[in-house]
């Protein structure tokens, strides 16, 4: 049996790295008293993974931890144990129990919703460039990876984009092959507007997977059919 745990990462912990977050959750799972399944070998650790790593400095209300249990447990018992083990700045926002045949959460992620709030003098120009971005057939940019940089067409990777109330609301591709990160989007908008890319606050609103009908649905609601 596996648990999909939806949690948030609030402002006070935004500079905690993904590696530190991983270590923290390992310790938190050890404290729950739940029958968490462990790896074998000289250094056993809980069998767990995150659907998608969150960049340092970002906040979120839709992170998903996927961990395995060695015995069946009720959803309510698991949720209560996790609430007690986690601080207020890592709030538990939902729990779903799935069987071992359910696909790994990280394999389901197709895109993510973000609220991106640019700051500084160039912010109005960034927001105004959204219309030009959406009307364009191609918007070229650079994707930075561990192996270096490569040119990408950002336009098809932004599934939706709008500006309202001083922020950008974007649905961006998030797969191993096709990814558009908020900072790259800002660089593209800045290039269109002819300004320097501003600093921005990034908040992840949702992680989504594609269902059998080809629709993007929140990860915690994804079904095989």
Overview of this structure, please?
The protein contains six helices and eleven strands. It is an alpha+beta fold and 225 residues long. The strands form two sheets. Strands 1, 2, 3, 4, 5, 8, 9, 10 and 11 form a nine-stranded mixed sheet that branches. A hairpin with a 2-residue loop joins strand 8 and strand 9. Helix 1 packs across helix 2. The longest helix has 15 residues. The protein is elongated. The two termini are 20 Å apart. The model has no long low-confidence stretch (mean pLDDT 94).
As a percent range, the share of helical residues equals: 10-25%
Please identify the structural class as seen in this structure.
alpha+beta
The count of helical stretches stands at 6
List low-confidence stretches: none
The dominant shape is elongated
Instruction: For the record, give the distance between the C-alpha atoms at the N and C termini, rounded to a whole number.
Output: 20 Å
Oligomerization status of the protein chains:
single chain
H/E series: EHEEHEHEHHEEEEHEE
Number of strands: 11
Estimate the mean pLDDT confidence: 94
Percent strand equals 25-35%
- State the major sheet: 9 strands, mixed
The Rg value, from CA coordinates, equals 19 Å
């Amino acid at each position: 049996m596996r648990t999909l745990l939806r949690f948030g990462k609030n402002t006070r912990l935004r500079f905690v790295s993904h590696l530190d977050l991983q270590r923290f959750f390992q310790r938190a799972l050890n404290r729950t008293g739940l029958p968490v399944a462990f790896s074998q070998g000289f250094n056993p650790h809980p069998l767990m993974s995150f659907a998608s790593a969150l960049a340092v400095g970002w906040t979120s209300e839709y992170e998903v931890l996927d961990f395995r249990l060695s015995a069946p447990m009720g959803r309510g018992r698991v949720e209560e144990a996790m609430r007690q083990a986690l601080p207020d700045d890592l709030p538990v926002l939902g729990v779903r129990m799935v069987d071992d045949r359910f696909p790994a959460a990280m394999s389901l992620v197709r895109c993510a919703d973000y609220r991106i709030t640019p700051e500084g003098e160039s912010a109005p120009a960034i927001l105004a460039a959204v219309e030009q971005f959406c009307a364009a057939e191609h918007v070229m940019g650079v994707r930075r990876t561990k192996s270096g940089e490569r040119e990408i067409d950002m336009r098809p990777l932004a599934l939706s984009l709008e500006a309202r109330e001083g922020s950008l609301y974007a649905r961006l591709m998030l797969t191993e092959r096709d990814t558009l990160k908020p900072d790259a989007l800002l660089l593209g908008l800045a290039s269109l507007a002819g300004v320097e890319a501003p600093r921005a606050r990034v908040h992840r609103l949702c992680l989504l997977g594609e269902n059998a009908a080809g629709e993007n649905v929140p990860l915690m609601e994804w079904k095989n059919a």
